Each structure stands twice: as C-alpha cells, then as structure tokens.
Amino acid sequence: MPRLSAALRWLGLRDGERLTGSAAVLSPHLDDAILSLGAAIANARSELAVVTVFAGDPDSALPAGEWDSQSGFRTAGEAARARREEDALACADVGARPVWLPFVDHQYPPDDDETVWNALERALEGADTVLVPAFPLTHPDHARLLALVERHGLPGRRLGRYVEQPYAAAWSDRSPGDGWTPLAAGLPQRVAKLRACRRYTSQLPLLSRSGPILRPLFAYEVARGGERVKWS
User: Fold this and answer.
1) Given this model, what pLDDT does residue 3 score?
2) Distance between CA atoms of 1 and 136, rounded to whole angstroms?
3) Beta strands across the sheet bearing 228-231
C-alpha cells in the first residue's frame, strides 16, 4: 500500500471496513485485543465483546509464574485481579465489553483443551463475527488459541484473523503475506487506542525492556493503513 494512501486510511480519510453487528475479539491475554485491534473496536458500530481466554483465576493462591513474578505479583490470583482491573479500564476506553475466562496461560500447568473450548463456545454465543490472533504467532498461547478455533470451527460465523501487536511491529521481521485488509478507524479512535494501551501499567515495562513498544506499534499501523485482518 503506497505510504500516502496508507497514512490517509489510518487517519480515517479513506474508506475501510467497519466492524458491525454482534462481534467478539478473542484475546489470549489481558491486553492482546486492545494492543492489536483497539482502534477498530472503538470504531465498531455496536458494542463488541473482548473475550480473554487466559485471564487467570483471581482466587488462585499459586505462586506467581515467571512473567507474573517479573511484573511484581506474588501469586497468580494477585496478577489476575490486577490485570483484570487494567483490562476493564482499557475496554471502557474503547467501548468494549470485557469477558474473562478463568484459564491460565503458559506460565502455569495448562487447563484441558476441551474445558477451555466448552467455556469459549458459551462465551461466543450470539456473536456472528469472531476475530482471532493469527500473525506472527510467536507466543505459544496465541498459537494454542488459533489451533483450538481451527480444530473445532465456528460454523455460521464470520471469522477474521488479526495481526498481533506488538509482536508484528516490534519482534518479527516476517510479512503476513497477501489478503490482509485494514479495518476502518480514524484519529479519535487511534487516540482512544493509545489511551487504552497505556492502561496496562503492569505489562508495558516488561514489553518495553528492549525498547519502547507503543511507538513502533503505531508506526507499523500507519505504514499499513491501520490494524489488519484477513477474513475467511
């Protein structure tokens, strides 16, 4: 996409597809959906659900895993509680409804796939469009979630695969290839996304250890006309 055209689309001055109807964004962790699709979520025509699959158990007394420990938490439950509070604020910034499933991420002994899928199916009842993480899939939880969706399928629903941030912008030198399209949003929605991203105060310091991540994230999206999805 030529640079000027991409920048105009990022600003909302060129047409793009807007999320409509009953939609749900599947978020592996309590930040992925907003970091990846926050502006499109803010621009959706109706309330959109952000379904976080590995949102943790707020009542867990398990010692904090490696990532949660580095974030300053003592237990898995403490991490889940704090991160859910951050996510609630971020979702409010972009007008989304947060849905949190109580499963653990790869730091902890995994929950059974079928148990996760059964809960996920219930959470997606009524959604006619579902968006799932799909590129670059460098995180095992992201790959696991996409594999669950592809294994079981979502019949009767429109499926969109989204570019994951900040993985694509900051930590991958691969291209997602052809067939990806920017979702519509304008400058007010980009600002709302930035505000929402900054809510994740327990996560941004770790994500930024090798350098700031929000700047390259937004630069990546400006150069490509926005947050990108591949429909199937």
Assistant:
1) 86
2) 20
3) 96-100, 48-52, 23-27, 129-135, 158-163, 228-231, 181-182
Spans in the chain with pLDDT lower than 70:
1
Residue 217: the pLDDT is 97
Q: What was the pLDDT predicted at 1?
A: 65
The pLDDT value recorded for residue 105 is: 97
- Measured on CA atoms in the order 78, 80, 86, 89, is the torsion positive or negative? negative
Question: Do you know the residue count of the chain?
Answer: 232
Other C-beta atoms closer than 10 Å to the C-beta of 166 total 24
Paired residues of 129 in beta bridges: 23, 158
pTM given for the model = 0.96
- Fold observed for domain 3-231: Rossmann fold (3.40.50)
Tokens of 199: 């809510």
* Lookup: tokens for 92: 């409010």
Q: What tokens appear for 96 in the block?
A: 């989304």
Give residue 14's pLDDT: 86
> What is the 8-class DSSP label of residue 153?
-
Express as a percent the part of the chain with pLDDT over 90. 94
Q: Which segments of the chain does DSSP mark as H helices, in order?
A: 3-10, 32-42, 66-70, 76-94, 113-123, 140-152, 167-170, 187-197, 204-207, 214-224
Contacts of 207 (CB under 8 A, 6+ apart): 166, 213
Angle at 144 between CA 137 and CA 159, to 5 degrees: 75
Whether 192 and 42 have beta carbons less than 8 Å apart is answered as: yes
Q: What is the DSSP string of 130-147?
A: EEEEEES--SHHHHHHHH
